[in-house]
């Protein structure tokens, strides 16, 4: 059975091969015949294989021609593609050149602007320097003028002062001469008055001393050699206005006791006499006490 | 140029001012008076709602100042105003009343039995405040505070230390046939007396130790004389001498290490010294007469005593470690019980003349004797520690009372003391 199947199958295979070869030949024919061009060719009527073998030579020729033809067409196609590529490249190059040109022009414009600005700044600077120089010159001139003026004034002042000094000395000398003359005349009168004043001073001194000694309570701390000086200021009626210790005894109680004595004796007897205010002014407005106990 | 002118001008001004004292009239004052200083102690003000203070502080200060002999005080009835602080003082009025210094103050109650005492001392003559202070107090401390305030015022005004916060010791006897004897310690004005020994037998001659903490005294409590030293605060005491015969008149040396005393166990009363540390006696006088009442000189070099070796009692001195005795009193028939003033310048004694016995003061340098009191039986003089006042007992009215006299004799005062016959007062040293 199997054998049979293989016999049939081998026969079928041979038949099929024959059919395929016919189909190929037919296909080539259809393609190479112009008139068939795009019209499908019916294959329903196969040519007997025997007929094809006969025409082998012609077919081979035809096949070579077809191959040649195809090769030629491919080359043509490649050539066309090269051309297209070339054109694209050219176009691209042209575009790049245009962009490059535009950039270059802009840069040139910028540089020109920069140069213009620099020029302008330099000009301004030069102008300022010139102005400063002029001002400095003017100031120097002014200072020189002031210094000269000052010197002139100083000189004038010095001259004036010397003149005044001469005048003052002259006046003093005149006054001195006059005073000397007056003094000579007054000496005698003054001597007489002094004598009178002196006795009055002594009288007042005695009165004041008595008053103070009666009012001075010698404190328990008093020791031999202790001494206290004070300055007293009186009002014209003898009232003690101010007591100031000018040299302390070194003992606070002793110092206070002498201050107390002066306060306690106030008013001091300076206004009772008719000696008047002149003696008061010269002698008793302000005078000193020296407290120094002798018998302790 | 300008600098030179300035220097010249300054120089001229300076020489003018230097010359001014010399060129002014100067009056020499060489004499003064020893008059007392008139003060006014204005009654203290009172601010409080509780009970008033138990003591009149102003009155105590006033009495203290008067007793010192240095001050006179304006009577309260003569005051025209009664300020309680230094503000708004009418100086003119006080001057018219012849007041030199014014003491004003007030007592403020701050809590129950808590007070603040404020005091101001004002110089009326110069119209300036001289001192001002405030102290806390309570009812128990008022009296002591018043004494302390007087001390401060006294020292400010005189430059001498005040003695108003010191104490005194004395002996009293009360009851007729079987008397009771007390040894008292009291404040310097005689108040606040505290009995420190009570005995049915006599006591004599209390003497303060230099630190003011102990008393030496003679007690007859064992029917014969014995000498004791007693600590005042603790009451602790020790017998230091109980020989046969007289054990009497103890006196402390200034350094507190020895006692001088009178002993008669060898037959005749003589002066001895007793070393408190070694408890040894050494005999100082060997005379056949009575030698008694020893007292140390302030420098401790000599001992002053009473002796009748000349026929009548007179005062003598002898070197403290032995030597020749020297008579120092010649006026009158009787000079006894001598004591040195703290500065050694004076000796106070009982001076008998015309049947009266008075306190007299001998000036050591000159030998000048001044009678200070006018009683008929004044005895036992004792100096205040500042030497300004003498305390003594006077038996004018039959029984002894305490009195004080300033050493210039100008101020005498009878002091408060407990009932009974008061004898032999002794003034304490300064409080330490």
Care to give the gist of this entry?
The complex is a heterodimer of chains A (296) and B (432). Chain A has 296 residues and is mainly α. Chain A is 74% helix and 7% strand.
Estimated structural class of chain B: mainly beta
Low-confidence stretches of chain B: 14-19
| H-E order of chain A | HHHEEHHE
Find the structural class of chain A using helix and strand composition. mainly alpha
Strand order of the largest sheet of chain A: 2-1-3
Tally of extended strands of chain B? 31
Alpha-carbon Rg of chain A, integer: 77 Å
Question: Would you mind describing this structure in some detail?
Answer:
- Chain A is mainly alpha-helical.
- Helices cover 74% and strands 7% of the residues of chain A.
- In chain A, strand 1 and strand 2 form a beta hairpin.
- The radius of gyration of chain A is 77 Å and the shape is rod-shaped.
- The model of chain A has no long low-confidence stretch (mean pLDDT 84).
- Chain B is mainly β.
- Helices cover 13% and strands 43% of the residues of chain B.
- In chain B, strands 2, 3, 4, 5, 6 and 7 form a six-stranded mixed sheet that branches.
- In chain B, a hairpin with a 6-residue loop joins strand 16 (258-263) and strand 17 (270-275).
- The interface between A and B is medium-sized, with 42 and 24 residues.
Keyword list:
heterodimer, A: 296 residues, 3-stranded antiparallel β-sheet, rod-shaped, B: 432 residues, mainly beta, 6-stranded mixed β-sheet
Q: What is the secondary structure topology, with strand pairs?
A:
The complex is a heterodimer of chains A (296) and B (432).
Chain A: H1 2-32, H2 49-54, H3 56-215, E1 228-234, E2 240-247, H4 252-265, H5 276-284, E3 286-291
Antiparallel strand pairs in A: 1-2, 1-3
Helix pairs in contact in A: 3-4
Chain B: H1 2-23, E1 26-29, E2 37-41, E3 45-47, H2 57-67, E4 71-73, H3 91-96, E5 101-111, E6 114-123, E7 128-137, H4 142-158, E8 167-174, E9 180-187, E10 194-199, E11 203-208, E12 214-219, E13 226-231, E14 237-241, E15 247-252, E16 258-263, E17 270-275, E18 280-283, E19 291-296, E20 302-307, E21 314-319, E22 326-327, E23 334-340, E24 346-353, E25 356-363, E26 369-371, E27 378-383, E28 389-394, E29 401-406, E30 412-414, E31 421-427
Parallel strand pairs in B: 2-4, 2-5, 3-5
Antiparallel strand pairs in B: 5-6, 6-7, 8-9, 8-31, 9-10, 11-12, 12-13, 13-14, 15-16, 16-17, 17-18, 19-20, 20-21, 21-22, 23-24, 24-25, 25-26, 27-28, 28-29, 29-30
Helix pairs in contact in B: 2-4
């Amino acid at each position: 059975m199997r054998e049979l199947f293989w016999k049939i199958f081998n026969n079928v295979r041979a038949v099929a091969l024959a059919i395929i070869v016919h189909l190929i030949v037919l296909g080539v024919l259809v393609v190479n015949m112009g008139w068939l061009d795009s019209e499908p060719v019916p294959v329903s009527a196969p040519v007997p294989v025997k007929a094809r073998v006969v025409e082998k030579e012609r077919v081979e020729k035809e096949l070579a021609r077809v191959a040649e033809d195809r090769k030629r067409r491919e080359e043509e196609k490649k050539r066309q593609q090269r051309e297209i590529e070339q054109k694209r490249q050219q176009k691209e190059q042209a575009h790049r050149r245009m962009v490059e040109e535009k950039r270059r022009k802009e840069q040139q414009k910028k540089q020109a602007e920069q140069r213009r600005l620099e020029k302008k700044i330099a000009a301004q600077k030069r102008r300022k320097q010139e102005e400063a120089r002029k001002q400095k010159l003017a100031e120097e001139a002014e200072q020189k003028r002031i210094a000269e003026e000052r010197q002139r004034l100083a000189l004038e002042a010095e001259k004036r002062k010397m003149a005044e000094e001469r005048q003052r000395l002259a006046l003093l000398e005149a006054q001195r001469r006059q005073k000397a003359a007056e003094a000579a005349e007054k000496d005698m009168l003054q001597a007489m008055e002094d004598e009178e004043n002196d006795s009055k001073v002594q009288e007042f001194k005695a009165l004041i001393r008595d008053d103070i000694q009666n009012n001075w309570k010698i404190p328990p701390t008093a020791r031999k050699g202790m001494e206290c000086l004070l300055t007293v200021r009186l009002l014209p009626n003898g009232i003690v206005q101010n007591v100031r210790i000018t040299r302390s005894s070194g003992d606070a109680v002793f110092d206070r006791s002498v201050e107390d004595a002066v306060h306690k004796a106030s008013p001091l007897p300076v206004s009772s006499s008719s000696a008047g205010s002149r003696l008061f002014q010269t002698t008793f407005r302000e005078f000193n006490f020296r407290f120094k106990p002798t018998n302790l | 140029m300008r600098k030179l002118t300035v220097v010249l001008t300054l120089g001229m001004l300076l020489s003018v001012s230097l010359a001014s004292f010399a060129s002014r009239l100067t009056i020499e004052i060489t004499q003064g008076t020893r008059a007392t200083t008139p003060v006014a102690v204005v009654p203290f003000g009172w601010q409080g709602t509780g009970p008033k203070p138990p003591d009149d502080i102003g009155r105590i200060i006033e009495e203290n100042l008067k007793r010192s002999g240095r001050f006179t005080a304006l009577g309260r009835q003569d005051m025209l105003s009664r300020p309680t602080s230094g503000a708004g003082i009418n100086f003119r009025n006080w001057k018219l009343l012849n007041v030199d210094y014014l003491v004003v103050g007030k007592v403020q109650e701050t809590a129950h039995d808590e007070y603040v005492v404020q005091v101001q001392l004002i110089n009326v003559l110069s119209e300036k405040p001289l001192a001002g202070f405030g102290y806390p107090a309570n009812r128990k401390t008022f009296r002591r505070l018043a004494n302390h305030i007087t001390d401060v015022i006294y020292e400010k005004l005189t430059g001498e230390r005040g003695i108003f916060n010191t104490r005194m010791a004395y002996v009293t006897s009360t009851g007729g046939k079987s008397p009771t004897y007390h040894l008292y310690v009291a404040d310097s004005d005689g108040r606040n007396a505290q009995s420190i020994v009570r005995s049915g037998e006599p006591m004599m001659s209390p003497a303060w130790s230099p630190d003011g903490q102990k008393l030496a005294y003679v007690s007859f409590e064992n029917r014969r004389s014995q000498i004791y030293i007693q600590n005042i605060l603790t009451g602790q005491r020790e017998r230091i001498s109980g020989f046969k015969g007289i054990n009497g008149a103890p006196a402390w040396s200034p350094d507190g290490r020895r006692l001088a005393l009178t002993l008669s166990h060898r037959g005749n009363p003589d002066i001895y010294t007793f070393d408190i540390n070694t408890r040894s006696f050494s005999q100082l006088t060997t005379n056949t007469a009575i030698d008694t009442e020893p007292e140390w000189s302030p420098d401790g070099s000599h001992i002053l005593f009473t002796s009748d070796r000349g026929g009548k009692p007179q005062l003598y001195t002898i070197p403290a470690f032995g030597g020749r005795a020297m008579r120092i009193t010649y006026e009158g028939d009787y000079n006894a019980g001598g004591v040195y003033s703290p500065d050694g310048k004076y000796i106070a004694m009982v001076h008998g003349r015309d049947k009266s016995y008075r306190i007299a003061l001998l000036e050591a340098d000159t030998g000048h004797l001044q009678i200070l009191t006018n009683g008929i039986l004044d005895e036992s003089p004792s100096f205040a520690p500042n030497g300004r006042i003498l305390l003594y007992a006077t038996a004018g009215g039959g029984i002894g009372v305490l009195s004080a006299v300033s050493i210039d004799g100008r101020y005498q005062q009878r002091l408060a003391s407990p009932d009974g016959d008061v004898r032999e007062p002794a003034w304490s040293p300064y409080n330490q």
